Amino acid sequence: MNEALLRAFIYGVEMDREKAMNIPSLAGAILKIADTVAAIPIKLYKRNGDKNEVVEDERTVLLNEDTGDTLDGYQFKHALIMDYFLGKGGYAYINKSGRKIESLHYVKESNISFRENADVIFKDYQIMVQGNTYDPEDWIRLLRNTEDGIRGKSIIEENKESLSVAYTALKFEKNLVSKGGNKKGFLKSERRLKKEQMDELKAAWKELYSNNGENVVILNEGMDFKEASNTSVEMQLNENKKTNGIEVCKIVGTPPAMIEGKATERDEKIFIKYEINNVLKALETAINRAMLLESEKGEYYFEADTDDLNRSDIEKRYAAYGTGIEKGFLQVDEVRKKEKMPQLGVEFIKLGLNDGLLDPVANKVYVLNTNKTIDLNKLRKGEEEGELNLENNPSSLTDTSMQSGEIAGQSGTEEPEKNL
Fold this sequence. Notes:
Blueprint: H1 3-11, H2 17-20, H3 24-38, E1 42-48, E2 51-55, H4 58-64, H5 73-86, E3 90-97, E4 100-107, E5 113-116, E6 125-129, E7 132-134, E8 139-142, H6 155-158, H7 160-178, E9 185-189, H8 195-208, E10 223-227, H9 232-235, H10 237-252, H11 256-260, H12 265-291, E11 300-304, H13 314-327, H14 332-338, E12 357-359, E13 364-367, E14 372-375, H15 376-392, H16 395-419
Helix pairs in contact: 3-5, 3-10, 4-5, 7-10
């Protein structure tokens, strides 16, 4: 083990972004999240009572397709997520012309600095880039574990020791491989060697461990090679690699099976529910805060369209649709829309044969057994008129009851005569 590696084990490694991304499990986990989030489209919705309507807007084009900058929509979101995990946050400048957003410009977090006030309650700051000062309202700011709303905390900053162990183990493995797997040991000489002999021996030994050919060292008479025993670290290298990989995945919040390509349906659900959804919510909040006009807030909102992300395999999906249609809380056209198929214009809700078909738009019921259509509006109007007549002329109910009683009484007196 060389001196630099020994110092790393004793004193630790000063981790940075470049070193962190050399750890396979960390790079795989973060790239998995960034790739997934970047592929999800952002849509603009309008609240309209109980309904949320999709609104066509140029801002969604900037977020999903063409940012107006050198990056496209996918690359733009991908870069923000990478800085979210590995830096102080994801930052993007919003280029406006009046109230209209013309373009979005991602800026690498290492190029961002701040000018802050000293008030810990009423915090205020400005963003500085290459000597220019900008108001934070003109920026999308995606911050992880922030305490001041100005800068976030990276995974590297929060987990220096754990990542240092994983990185040092990687360097240790590289050191072993660079020596061609040759056993470590020490040379023993029966007589004292001169400096020239020592230098020549060191050069030959270095050539042997350089792993650049089938090198051979011939020992002179009186010299012997004593093999050193393997350390516990060497003997458990593979086991340590697995353990370190699992620990790094825990840091990011990604099931290890997702990185290994052995993910089960349960692993995928955990990944989406506890990691992807959280990152998406942070991204949505940052976009809503920065890209909505003050007059739009409360009525409009940006949200990720996760329909494709949550889609299961076709067999389970179609079975779920069948249940929804059978129970009456899904319509055929709603299912076809989810599957990106042309809609048929069918506005009926399928009910049981004894219930018929309900048209919620026209408020009519078609009864299959009787082949009749009932207009619920007219039916309700008739009931209301009947109730109104009853309120205006309550004696009609009494008269009707008395007439019914007289008829019943006459029927009762005539019946015995008939029997006689």
